[in-house]
């Protein structure tokens, strides 16, 4: 096991993610990514959540699975409800990361674009389909 490589992979993703989000603050980018990943994880069926987790770098897998349990997907039908759900996954939402629903919307869009470019196309499509049709998801 080469922990330095795991850290390098996680840092590479963080640096790329900062570019997608248009921010320089790596801590903020990591919080946003975590919040969106946890929202997606809890919204999609368990099998899909596990498949997504398998495509993440090892350190991000740990973040992704933190607090994970077998579940029925959270029922969310409207985009505003989805954006509020994302905000609940981040303790800093009101103050720094998602002060408004617009901030949550653009962060979700940017994270989805990042995922589209960093996981398999099939997995991305399955995630996009698992979200309700009223939730705007960038398509490949």
UniProtKB/TrEMBL annotation:
Q: Which Pfam families match?
A: DUF2267
What is the name of the protein in this document?
A: DUF2267 domain-containing protein
State the taxonomy lineage.
Answer: Bacteria, Pseudomonadati, Bacteroidota, Cytophagia, Cytophagales
Look up and give the organism this protein is from.
Pontibacter cellulosilyticus
InterPro entries hit by this protein: DUF2267, DUF2267_sf
């Amino acid at each position: 096991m080469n922990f330095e490589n795991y850290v390098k992979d996680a840092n590479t993703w963080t640096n790329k993610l900062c570019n997608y989000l248009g921010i320089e603050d790596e801590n903020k980018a990591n919080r946003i990514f975590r919040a969106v990943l946890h929202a997606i994880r809890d919204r999609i069926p368990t099998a899909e959540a596990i498949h997504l987790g398998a495509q993440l770098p090892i350190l991000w897998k740990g973040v992704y699975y933190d607090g994970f349990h077998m579940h029925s997907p959270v029922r969310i039908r409207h985009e505003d409800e989805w954006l509020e759900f994302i905000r609940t996954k981040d303790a800093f939402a009101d103050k720094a990361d998602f002060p408004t629903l617009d901030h949550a919307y653009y962060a979700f869009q940017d994270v989805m674009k990042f995922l589209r470019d960093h996981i398999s196309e099939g997995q991305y499509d399955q995630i996009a389909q698992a979200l309700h049709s009223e939730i705007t998801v960038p398509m490949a």
